[in-house]
Amino acid sequence: MVLLPEKHSPQAGWLTAARPWLWRRRVIIIMTSRIKPQIVIDMLLLRHCPRLSRLCYGSHRAAVPAVIASARFSRDSDQSHVRWSRRWTHATAGLLAGTGAVLAYALHHHQAEQADVSLPSPPSPPPSSPSSWSVFSQEEVSRHRSLEDRVWVTFKGGVYDITEFVSMHPGGDRIMLAAGGAVEPFWALYAVHNQEHVLEMLAEYKVGELRAEDQKKQSLNPSDPFSADPDRHPVLHINNMKPFNAEPPPQILTESYVTPNVFFFKRNHLPVPQVDPATYKLHVEIQGPSGSARRGIVSLSLDDLKNKFPKRTVTATLQCAGNRRSDMHNAKPVKGLNWGIGAIGNASWSGASLRDVLLAAGYAPDDALWARHVQFEGLDQDVGGTTYGASIPLRKALSEDGDCLLAYEMNGEELPADHGFPVRVVVPGTVGARNVKWLGKIVVSDVESSSHWQQNDYKGFSPSTDWDTVDYKTAPAIQELPIQSAITVPADGAKVDRSDEELTLKGYAWSGGGREVVRVDVSVDGGKTWRIAKLKGDEAGSPPPGQAWAWKLWELTVPLPADTQQLELVCKAVDSSYNMQPDAVLPIWNLRGVLSNAWHRVKVTIKDDQDE
Amino acid sequence: MVLLPEKHSPQAGWLTAARPWLWRRRVIIIMTSRIKPQIVIDMLLLRHCPRLSRLCYGSHRAAVPAVIASARFSRDSDQSHVRWSRRWTHATAGLLAGTGAVLAYALHHHQAEQADVSLPSPPSPPPSSPSSWSVFSQEEVSRHRSLEDRVWVTFKGGVYDITEFVSMHPGGDRIMLAAGGAVEPFWALYAVHNQEHVLEMLAEYKVGELRAEDQKKQSLNPSDPFSADPDRHPVLHINNMKPFNAEPPPQILTESYVTPNVFFFKRNHLPVPQVDPATYKLHVEIQGPSGSARRGIVSLSLDDLKNKFPKRTVTATLQCAGNRRSDMHNAKPVKGLNWGIGAIGNASWSGASLRDVLLAAGYAPDDALWARHVQFEGLDQDVGGTTYGASIPLRKALSEDGDCLLAYEMNGEELPADHGFPVRVVVPGTVGARNVKWLGKIVVSDVESSSHWQQNDYKGFSPSTDWDTVDYKTAPAIQELPIQSAITVPADGAKVDRSDEELTLKGYAWSGGGREVVRVDVSVDGGKTWRIAKLKGDEAGSPPPGQAWAWKLWELTVPLPADTQQLELVCKAVDSSYNMQPDAVLPIWNLRGVLSNAWHRVKVTIKDDQDE
Fold it and tell me: Transmembrane ranges (chains A, B) (predicted)?
């Protein structure tokens, strides 16, 4: 056994140098007041000692065994994006299966067993009498998002300072995603938290309670049309505040096949409308050919939609036309929100079939003689009263295989305000922009929607078309989207350790029009050579041909090449029509930066052991 | 007026040097025994003389005015493909509209007007008495395919030596495509030939008659299973003789929206079967789930198909999965027939609807519970009796919008032997391999066809998959094909004249699955900058969304860049799902060389005037 005080400099790499000597010890304890990146590396190295049976470190407040890999979280001051270490990934892979939390709990509750270590006692738990709790606003909670500022989270109205627990978290630094906000959405992702002892652990970190009104809507500010917008999870990366446009950190996308509602990208064109579900009405009409009288005007309440039509559920991926616009913008500037790779998500949608509703509203076979489009109008509107609108081909709306829904549930929950409460259209396989939210009106027509977003936006153009020459009439409105894929893990610019020996890549792949993703090729040398990733689709099995509405997640573990320190990771997907992603960005560049589906590229650096 | 004997060397460019002097003359006649490329250039230059009213040249046998641009045809001895000059293209553009033939005819008949030119008389026409005609075999005719070997063609049993006419042909060197074979298919392409005076002109070149038996099938050779194969047009480029696989010269593809049957690529897997239409039977059966009894066994005669079901017509492009394989093979060797860009064609197919036939055979809605595929079996078989087979998804076969046909006509004619006489399946939007010819059997099944071509061929793989690692079970059978386009004119390696000042590119573009081609981008600098080509679709108008089964032809005229002598022409198409072609070949390389749809690239050289 050996007890190491915290005297080393992380840069000096003393522990690495001392490895041969340490190699022969059975128990090693490292004393430190702060969890530093280097210590985690050292501990991971020491875990390979052939005789080692226990490896611990002690904080200034507690000595906690930590054979689990600990977290590293750093925020680079010179860039706005949080950068994550990938180091823990492999070390914690097994723990995530469920044993990790149990282990952490056991370790936490059995500090007494550390009889051979002389350390200060842990602090007393905070008072447990509810009357004594401080009350914090959400804003105050949101300021606690780092080890330096303390790490606070909320859970069912309670506020918890979990700073001390961060290093013990079996899931590693994922816990920092919840910093400053609610843990519930993460716990929904990781079923391992659904255990009583997890709540017991959390209770010990309670520091106060969340102000009651922060769980309700903020008081309205009549001068700001966006004042009624709902609260959003702080982990979202905001591309625009008003209207709200935000995406989750990429790695969250590949944590679960279905994207939790709070993390699902939000793409609003206008303020979120306040809709009273009790008085909500959806108007449906069959508009005859231009000039003829309208008919089949039907008004449906939310209850009508829920009770008069069979409830259908479709798992479908929605992607914004601007997803990955930043890749295009970086190649040559475009106009549009600077989306990363997170303007995509996969959800299980439930509602009435659009086809059923159209037939109930009086759509008849004869209408096929003139009808071509189904227009949708949202209840969201600008200060001038212009509402959001879009349309889809009639065939898609009417097809039994088209699976279009008037959805009132998302992942088993009531449709969230940001996703169109109380009803949105879900048009599987079709660009997000046609999946109109806060749906107010459906019109069967011989013409497309006349809205700005159908006529003069969401269209693709040649790289040779600029703002002086663009004629929106010359291009079709985007409907089905092309094949797409991206690498979510590791992040661009990540550093990996040579000693890891291998690297696991994760990502998503999806194609529009119900075309199933059949292969994802991955390269670690910029596209010179390729490997085939493992695909993970719906556990329920393969969809029928032409109805593959949901993405596939993919994963691939590759050995780290010995002869290079820079890796250019690339992925490209293939769909069931054998469409492939274009290689480069510039040849598909377009002035609005839509349809950005060139090969996704991520650069990572391999750090040799002697680098530190 | 000036009379120039043929004394100049083409390399010396004397005519160019003498231009200022010649510039002032009103009539110029050039004496030459052979039509040489330089003379054509010189003549084109001289046509710009401000005072010139007539420009003629004289052969050793005839003096023929030729204000029309004359042909150049060269065969490079070091390469197997015929290379065509593009020089005549612009000069003859107007003539092709119909005036050209008239002009040529007029010129031909009014040699007497050349009274101011002293030249030998034209030869006497060959004897017109039928009894005196020599009889030639098709093989003998086929040997006459160049100016050196004389140019022979056949028309309605007659054999014609048109060598002298080649330089007068208003359509330029296109006439050489007919050399050694029949002119009828070309005349079907160019309606301008449907005039009496054209026949009168042709009659003057008659040299004999085609052996009667050469218009019938060759006598059967029982030792050769391919001995009953039909005759094919000699213009086809043969990739394999037995089984027959051949494609037309690229430029023919863009001459007409619908590809004439004789020029439509032939892709046979086995000998062409001899089917007696009188006794032909198509078997249709609904095969229950594995193990259950078969039912709905129906046997339909050709008359049944023609008379018991409505005749439907669909214009659809068929493309071989191996089209453009040579591009892939050139990047890295693959196994397969070395198709150029001509394994694609567009035809108007007529027949019974597959859906109608399946319903008539007893397909019922309940069958959707187990049925997934429709299998097709051809009557073509190998020596062991194995027949060609393939299958398509049931949904495609049953969909009213799928437009699948049991076709017995192709472009208004009885289905040709090479294209499946008497009946083939046409599966619009789907790879050629599933459009089974000489159809003998249709089976509704819960499984795909077990044939080699469905299970172990016609599938796409990663570039990392080689013959040691390939597992055909891991990839789906190709059905819908991805977006494709190619440049048919100019040909790779062509030379264009600087003095042309501009260059016209032509090509085709098509996508599978009924996705309409919405844009073709063209580059003359290897893909750095792009222009948008003009698309030419069906004159009947745009198809409904998802039913764009036919290709679009495209064309673009660009100014010749002043600063370069080498142009790299590139095209890439975009379909209605905004799928685009991949940039490069190697990243989509696959061991069988299928799905070769990277940007098509053609290199041309600009020849400056002083080059010659």
Answer: none
Q: Which of A445, A474, A503 is the last residue of a domain?
A: A474
Contact B546 A393 (CB under 8 A): yes
- Do B175 and B210 lie in one domain? The reply is yes
Answer for the pair A136, A130: CB distance below 8 angstroms, yes or no.
no
Question: For chain B, which ranges sit under pLDDT 70?
Answer: 1-131, 188-192, 194, 215-223, 291, 610-612
Three-state SS letters, A80-122: CCCEECCCHHHHCCCHHHCHHHHHHHHHHHCHHHCCCCCCCCC
Asked if residue B296 and residue B161 are part of one domain, the reply reads: no
B576 touches A at CB < 8 Å: yes
Nearest residue in chain A measured CA to CA from B482:
A579
Q: Identify the band that residue A25 occupies on the pLDDT scale cut at 50, 70 and 90.
A: low
Chain A residues touching B513 at Cβ < 8 A: 513, 577
A211 shares its domain with A288: no
Instruction: Compare CB distances from B595 to A478, A479, A578 and report the shortest one's residue.
Output: A578
Q: Which helix (H) or strand (E) holds B237?
A: strand B237-240
Residue B66: the pLDDT is 34
Domain of A502, in residue numbers: 484-611
Examine the domain organization and report whether A244 and A209 are in the same domain.
Answer: no
Number of domains composing chain A: 4
Residue A543 in contact with partner chain B when CB distance is under 8 A: no
**CATH code of B350's domain:** 3.90.420.10
Closest by alpha carbon to B100, among B17, B201, B30, B226?
B201
Residue A267 bears catalytic tag:
yes
**pTM score, whole prediction:** 0.71
In a domain, A388, yes or no: yes
Residues A275 and A329 in one domain: yes
pLDDT at B26: 52
Inter-CA distances, B190 with A402, B187, B253, B299, Å: 44, 5, 13, 42
Q: Which two tokens stand for residue A398?
A: 């009417």
Contact B532 A464 (CB under 8 A): yes
Which among A578, A585, A588 is the top mutation candidate for probing chain B, defined by the most B β-carbons within 10 Å of its own β-carbon?
A578
pLDDT tens, position by position, A208-244 = 999 888 865 333 444 678 888 999 999 999 999 989 9
Report the gap between the CA of A462 and the closest CA in chain B (Å).
7
At A180-199, the pLDDT tens digits run 988 877 776 565 676 778 88
Helix (H) or strand (E) holding B102: helix B99-109
Question: Residue A150, exposed/middle/buried by CB under 10 A (0-12, 13-18, 19+)?
Answer: middle
Note whether B395 contacts A544, CB cutoff 8 Å.
Answer: yes
User: Which pLDDT score is estimated for A231?
Assistant: 92
The pLDDT-based confidence of A67 (bands split at 50, 70, 90) is very low
Residue B121 resides in a domain: no
- Quick one: A21 and A153 in the same domain? no
Contacts of A241 (CB under 8 A, 6+ apart): A226
Residues 461-480 of B with CB under 8 A from A: 462-465, 475-476, 478-480
For range A382-395, the mean pLDDT: 91
Nearest CA in chain B to A526: B587
**A470 CA: distance to closest CA in chain B (Å):** 12
Res A19 pLDDT > 80: no
What integer pLDDT is reported at residue B184 of this predicted model? Answer: 77
Q: Is B419 helix (H, G, I), strand (E, B) or coil?
A: helix
CB contact under 8 A, A478 and B578: yes
Residue A459 structure tokens: 């269209």
Q: At B571, which CATH number? A: 2.60.40.650
Task: Note if B8 is an active site residue.
Answer: no
Domain assignment present for residue A155? The answer is yes
Do A336 and A467 have their domain in common? yes
> Cβ of B521 and A464 within 8 Å?
yes
| A543 and A441 share one domain | no
Do B577 and A482 make contact, defined as CB atoms within 8 angstroms?
yes
Tokens 């208004």 found at? B412
